[in-house]
Amino acid sequence: MTATPTFMAREIAEIPRAGERLLAAGDAARLAEVLKSREIPFAVICGRGSSGHAGVALRYLIETRLGLPVSASAPSVVTGYARPPLVAGALFVVVSQSGRSPDLVAATEAARAGGALTLALVNDPDSPAARASDLVLPILAGPEKAVAATKTVTNSMIAGAALVAAWADDQDLAAGLAALPGRLDAALALDWSDWGADLDGAPAAFVTGRGHGLGTVREIALKLAETLRLPALGYSAAELRHGPRASVSASTPVLALRQADELAEGIDALVRDLRRDGLRVRACGGPAGTLPWLGDGHPACDPIAMLVPAYRAIEAQARRRGLDPDAPVGLTKVTETL
């Protein structure tokens, strides 16, 4: 008898259609027209956990495509230290699956009161964070029951990319996004179980990449921690060469993600150096790649597609270990912090 698929597995399988639905809606292009009409000096992005990782991806897109400096918001400055931010004229983006965490809502309200143009990237357009914002970009991922977020993460990243593509009139990025649902479909067939097997008995794991891939790197590390109970660290390939390198050993497997852009050679060089030192490295993309991959697509879109086989491998490894990937110990779907 075939086991009933977990919610996590079903939601991973829904990623291509969720992305397609979001891109077809056209909401990002409509909101981009509002942003084009404003003189925006800088942007601030607010999000925690997986939503924060989608915010990292958005940060790189805004800074590389629009040249605007981007800061990460620390909600506790508002909720704990009671210091409202000086953000007049800025774009404040809150990224949240549920839109219900009190600290994110409070930070958004404070930013709006401080004169920022506030934008919510949320799965629930009627949530408190959405109501606190001037603009709302629904990510249209549909209901997500597994505690470990998957399709809401990919759709948050796609929504941010679509917004920037329209805002910057970046036709190359728009073309990459148009091809993305098909690549997400193909990514569902990629088998990264060799990397999953590397995690057996490991006391910790590392994930590395750079630039447009950094949000994906941090997201995979989080999924290892919450779904497999495996301490995992996601580092920039540049940062991993510094202090963290001392803690990488033969017992701590490394996953390296490489997109084909100006930072690719640095990631390739790190993979070569780690392998030369006898360390276990699985790489996706480029000449050093050992994991199944689709070949190079758009460098800002490929890291989104790389999440799909990583999620599948983590879900399968959780079941092999007798863990429930839908309900990790000590976690709930909506995390409320102040």
Fraction in helix: 40-55%
Could you please say which CATH topology of the largest domain applies here? Answer: Rossmann fold
DSSP summary: helix tally: 14
Structural Rg: 19 Å
The shape is globular
CATH level-four homologous superfamily name of the largest domain: Glucose-6-phosphate isomerase like protein, domain 1
Q: Could you report the average pLDDT, rounded to the nearest whole number? A: 95
Structural class: alpha/beta
Biggest sheet details:
5 strands, parallel
CATH architectural group of the largest domain? 3-Layer(aba) Sandwich
- Series of secondary-structure elements, N-terminal to C-terminal: HHHEHEHEHEHEHHHEHEHEHEH
Total domains, how many? 2
How is the secondary structure organized here?
Blueprint: H1 7-13, H2 15-25, H3 27-36, E1 43-46, H4 49-65, E2 70-72, H5 76-79, E3 91-96, H6 102-113, E4 117-122, H7 128-131, E5 135-138, H8 151-167, H9 171-187, H10 193-198, E6 205-209, H11 214-228, E7 232-236, H12 237-240, E8 254-257, H13 264-276, E9 281-284, H14 302-320
Parallel strand pairs: 1-2, 1-3, 3-4, 4-5, 6-7, 6-8, 8-9
Helix pairs in contact: 2-8, 2-9, 3-8, 4-8, 4-11, 8-9, 9-14, 11-14
Structure description:
InterPro entries: GlmS/AgaS_SIS, GlmS/FrlB_SIS, SIS_dom, SIS_dom_sf. With 338 residues, the chain is of the alpha/beta class. The chain has two domains: 7-180, Glucose-6-phosphate isomerase like protein, domain 1 (Rossmann fold); 189-320, 3-Layer(aba) Sandwich (Rossmann fold). It is 46% helix and 12% strand. Helix 3 (27-36) packs across helix 8 (151-167), helix 4 packs antiparallel against helix 11 and helix 9 (171-187) runs parallel beside helix 14 (302-320). The longest helix has 19 residues, at 302-320.
